[in-house]
Amino acid sequence: MTTTRTSPLAGERAAGVDAELLEVRDLSVEFTGADGRPVRAVRDVSFTLRRGETLAIVGESGSGKSTTAFAAARMLPGTGRVTGGSVLLDGEDLVAADERHLRTVRGARIGMIFQDPMTSLNPVLTAGRHLDEVLRAHGYGDRAARRARAAELLGLVGIPDPERRLDDHPHRFSGGQRQRILIAMALAGEPDVLIADEPTTALDATVQDQILNLLTDLNRRTGTALVLISHNMGVVARTCARVLVMYGGSVVEDGPTDRVLTRPRHPYTAGLLAAVPRLSAPSGTRLTGIPGSPPDPARPTEGCAFAERCAFAEDGCRTARPRLVTLDDGVRAACPPAAARTEPLSGPAAPERIDRPTPGGTVLAAENIRKVYRGRGLTGRTKGFTALDGVSLTLAAGETLGIVGESGSGKSTLARVLAHAHPSDGGTLRLRGQDITRPSRTELREVRRAVQMVFQDPYASLNPRMTVGQVVAEPLISLGLGDRRAREQRVAELLRQVGLDPSAAGRHPRAFSGGQRQRIGIARALAPEPTVLICDEPVSALDVSLQAGIVNLLGDLQRDLGLALVFIAHDLAVVRQVSHRIAVMHNGRIVETGSADEVCENPRDPYTRALLAAAPEPVPVAPGVVV
Amino acid sequence: MTTTTPTAGAVPGTAPAARKAPARRHPYLAALRTPRGLTGLALVALIVLGGLFAPLLSGHDPTAQSGLGLAAPGTAGHPLGTDDLGRDLLGRVLYGIRTDLGVIALAVPLGALLGCLFALLAAAHPVADTAVQRVFDLILAFPGLILALAVTAVLGPGRLPVILVIALAEIPVFGRQLRGGILVQREREYVVAARVGGTSSSRALVRHILPNAADPLVVQLALSLTVAVFLEGAMSFLGVGVRPPEPTLGSVLNQSMPYLADAPQFAAGPLLAVTVLVLGLSLVADALNREIRR
């Protein structure tokens, strides 16, 4: 390390590139659950990382991908503990090392960056002070030298005018720039490996693109090995040379990215790839999902964790835990049937058309809607924030209108104004031609019956103290629909309609997984038989394998009930597939509207073009894979 | 309609058994069953039962003078001895607990109730909110004892002023706690969902907001009881509380002060009672707090 400490940033590393840097052997990690029982988050994970390599760990929530990386750096949060295996950094076991020794490893040899750049910087310290602290901890030079080095680091991560920006506080930087500062801090100790835990998940697509380019560029220029943890196949495809796919706490597949993504050997990898919505898929095609729910880490299975959801499962899969086996061309997969299989797993099935009704007459129309969030103070003296600025749109019966935009573009505010959850500050709203901008009490009742909403967060949108039956029945009670018996029957019917068992009515939301909770939210919205359903990011909080289930359910409901849908999302690919028309929002305005395929193929507005360019495509298109 | 279920795996019947929520004990009960909660509950029960059964535990009228003067503990019939006027000390401490508990058991819930009403008023309208907040500020601007002296200066010493002072001091404590809770809960998605579902704002308040904002109030109740024990004791100690000869822990302590060097047992009784009560309540509050934060 002493030789690299003063070397220029782009300098060559002394050690050979092919040497093994980090070797994880049979690592197991346990947490203590809320009920005091152990939860096995990671089970017998083994992998190696070579110097200068880029490795992605992909998986859905609960797969153990973050836990594996944190355990490798011995930074497990809460009750987490390593229960077995070893982590060798240049042959030295970190699992056995004491805390004092670990401190010399972290930062200097292993750097880390985290998901949320907004809360990871101390708001009272300048960017320069943040970097200075890290450099001082690593004993780097005197004050002036540290300042020069800090500026150099800021420049390295692509912050313009670094000398001057050193004295700025975090609030003067954008989200993407803050993530750059955090990357600069992680690189300050010139680590051998940089662990990035979902570094772009909290960022908008256009910014995500820049950060990924920066990470690959840094890897090339400084030779720092990169471990990228992500749930996003697109991010992985463009950033890393090798990929490790995790499911239920175990590695299911490991190999070079281009081979794993073009010819997946494990059925889960294949399913995950097929589930990623493609921007190239035309409007009106169904999404592909993986049936079933992810495994519960508190109840580990005997055999393969994926067997329950796997179309290729054999009897042996359910009784014996599969080991990673090296197949040809350097891919390892934990799937005994895969070794025997010679045919590639089928790619995504040919796109299935959604059987959509033809849109009818206009049901909901908004003209010139304005919404201003007033500033603080009794009279609102401080400056307000204009969330919606002259938004006009129409929605036809049986039509799906997709609304896309980045965070802060006003799409959620628009949803709430359309559903009358917030009053608008200007403009007109019409429901079937009738002005409902300022509804009377009886008119509002009609609006509530006709316009309902599905929310983003399936955890926050259900009152934890009510049973599912009470949640779903609430709109019926509030709107005075039916007597007790009729309501009970209606709740059972609604639960069946969204794919849940009617017995769910007696249980509390906490007994259900995210995807199931979202179904409960949809059942609640359907209760008063609305004609318009406003879905505010209904799948953003869900894993990609479950996303298809919810999106397809909404499509089926539209077909069966003739619903008009407003589908809000930040993921253009999903929106294109489900929508008839798309409206693109930017800074509280609609910048472009048009038919879904038209907007995605021939965007007119420069902002739409930027959005399209930034959306990562998951798979390097190759023969043999139907995209 | 069956065609609308492409992913049948979402049927909860197939969910792992662990997801089937076992009949969970109410978090408050669970809290009281932790070692911390049990210890606290036992200490509080010890004092409360002592006060409740004072007539059975002490055969003496707490105001009757035996003519013994300041007697040492162990004197026949007086396990803790007697005070400077020859009154049975055990009796005075036990009856003192009785008086204290009577006062705080009335005053703290009264303050909590008024505070919550103010909070509801504040939640109704921004202008009411500002007005209520300034009232809270006004009450909080006075330290408890100054408030006590001011109220007694108007009403004179006695049981009622003590109750009023404690209640008054607790109003902003509970009011702010609940107001904060309401403001947080009101922005939760399930409250917005209820409104879009047609729920009236009063029903949303009762069904969604208040139940989810109530937990901190229960913890606060246990904490406020400890504060009330101190405030009542301090008022009696200063002579502006419940009037003699009725015993209170504070007044017994006040009486013992001149004899601290010669007869420390005189002060020990009331001190011990207050300490055990406050310790017990604090442990209960802590246990509740830990449980609801999980």
UniProtKB/TrEMBL annotation, chain A:
Pfam families per the UniProt record, alphabetical: ABC_tran (PF00005), oligo_HPY (PF08352)
Database matches in Gene3D superfamilies: P-loop containing nucleotide triphosphate hydrolases
InterPro entries assigned: AAA+_ATPase, ABC_transp_ATP-bind, ABC_transporter-like_ATP-bd, ABC_transporter-like_CS, Oligopep_ABC_C, P-loop_NTPase
GO molecular function per UniProt: ATP binding
CDD domains named in the record: ABC_NikE_OppD_transporters
Domain ABC transporter: 24-273, 364-612
Keywords, sorted A to Z: ATP-binding, Nucleotide-binding, Transport
Keyword Transport: yes
Location of region: Disordered: 339-361
Family indicated by similarity: Belongs to the ABC transporter superfamily.
NCBIfam families: oligo_HPY (TIGR01727), PRK10419.1 (NF007739), PRK11308.1 (NF008453)
Identification of the protein by name: ABC transporter ATP-binding protein
UniProt source species: Streptomyces ochraceiscleroticus
Organism placement in taxonomy: Bacteria, Bacillati, Actinomycetota, Actinomycetes, Kitasatosporales
From TrEMBL, chain B:
Predominant place of localization: membrane
Positions of region (Disordered): 1-22
Compartments it resides in: Cell membrane
SUPFAM superfamilies in the cross-refs: MetI-like
PROSITE patterns assigned to the protein according to its UniProt record, in alphabetical order: ABC_TM1
Metal-binding listed as a keyword: no
InterPro entries linked: BP-dependent_transpt_permease, MetI-like, MetI-like_sf
Keywords in alphabetical order: Cell membrane, Membrane, Transmembrane, Transmembrane helix, Transport
Chain ranges of the ABC transmembrane type-1 domain: 97-289
Membrane topology: Multi-pass membrane protein
Parts of the chain that traverse the membrane: 38-57, 101-123, 135-154, 217-240, 266-288
Lineage top rank: taxon: Bacteria
Start-end of Low complexity biased regions: 1-20
Alphabetical list of Gene3D superfamilies matching this protein: MetI-like
Family, as annotated: Belongs to the binding-protein-dependent transport system permease family.
Name of protein: ABC transporter permease
Species whose genome carries this gene: Streptomyces ochraceiscleroticus
